[in-house]
Amino acid sequence: MKVLDLPIDMIATFTGTRNPIPYKFRYMDRSGERIEVKIDRITRTETMHLSGEPVILYTCQSRIGDFVRLYELKYIIPQYRWELHKI
Q1: pLDDT tens profile 46-62
Q2: Residues paired with residue 68 on neighbouring β-strands, in sequence order
Q3: Of 47, 58, 69, 70, whose CB is crowded by the most CB atoms within 10 A?
Q4: Nearest to 55 by CA among 71, 72, 73, 75
């Protein structure tokens, strides 16, 4: 997987005091086209510190175009910001 760290628009659900659960997101590819991806499966969730900030990394699987792809989403907790970390 290639590290991208692209900012994304995310729709997530929250249940009580648990971590957010990503549902679908949009990002802009290299050609400037906006791509919308519905998250089919979350295979792993990990809380860690990157660059001194607490983050939650989600390893997910979705159909993007004609292919099923694995990718990582990053939720930066203090900034309330989502990024497409790796794809």
Answers
A1: 999 998 999 999 999 99
A2: 63
A3: 58
A4: 75
